[in-house]
Amino acid sequence: MIHGSGLTHIVWSLHEQFLASKGYSVLALDLPAHGNSEGPAIKSIEEISDWINRLMQSLKIKEISFVGHSQGCLVGLEFAHRFPKLIKSLTLVGGSYSLPVNQDLIDYADGGDMKSVELMMKWGYEGVKKFIGGNPVQKIINSPRQVQEGLAVDLRACNNYKNGSNAAETLNCPTLCILGDKDKMVPLEKGKKMAAKIKNSELSVIKECGHMILFEKAFEMREIVKKFIEKNHK
Question: What tens-digit pLDDT sequence spans the chain (234 residues)?
Fold first, then answer.
């Protein structure tokens, strides 16, 4: 499981526990410079894909079912394109084959400005959702250093990635695209274009949901993911 820009493995807490309870071995990663992983942050989507390959070799993992959110979708596309023999299935949540980033957001993040997190939250959720215990994104990205050394690098990596369309067209592994119908960061039609490029992909649209599907509709999403992975592990 690969998190989105500036985030950590914590975003998967409701999902990894659920899948582990169903008998799966679950690895929710912190990318370098995020969460519990030491830095520096990796500067490109291509390099993150290579890093995952090296991690698999180190842990002697032969094959994975990849689940990525947002930036993690770009990583999933590139990883599946580069290392098709290592991937059993691919689940892309709130993603597209390109994720251009608003220049204001990049500028704020480069300067370690916490306004970048406020903008992400504003664009990331459907409506004005309230979360018990506070907004999860704000709890994860809560210091100027995390913004500058993690989020800013991630946003540039997304903005600079250009191989997504090509990668999507080359995929042969079973692929599930999960989209929110109210997503402001990846509008539904853009997500559907990605799904259309991937051969034999499945599309699941979750209603009344924004970009942060894994928080907003966690229980609905994890059931969809479980059924897809079960089908492709037979």
Answer: 999 999 999 999 999 999 999 999 999 999 999 999 998 999 999 999 999 999 999 999 999 999 999 999 999 999 999 999 999 999 999 999 999 998 989 999 999 999 998 888 777 776 545 555 567 787 888 889 999 999 999 999 999 999 999 999 999 999 999 999 999 999 999 999 999 999 989 999 999 999 999 988 999 999 999 999 999 876
Backbone phi, psi, residue 233, to 5°? -100, -5
Residue ranges and CATH numbers for the domains of the chain are: 9-97+162-232 (3.40.50.1820)
Residues 6+ apart with CB under 8 A from 231: 174
Nearest to 185 by CA among 108, 103, 100: 100
Residue with tokens 């500067």: 43
Query: Which secondary structure element, helix H or strand E, spans residue 202, and what is its range?
Result: strand 202-206
**8 A C-beta contact, residue 229 and residue 65:** yes
- Match 């409701």 to its residue by tokens: 14
Question: Is 86 in contact with 63 (CB distance < 8 Å)?
Answer: yes
In the three-class reduction of DSSP (H, G, I as helix; E, B as strand; rest coil), residue 94 is classed as coil
Residues 31 and 38: beta-carbon distance below 8 Å: no
* H-state helical runs in the chain: 13-21, 45-59, 71-82, 103-110, 115-124, 136-140, 144-146, 152-160, 164-170, 188-197, 213-216, 218-232
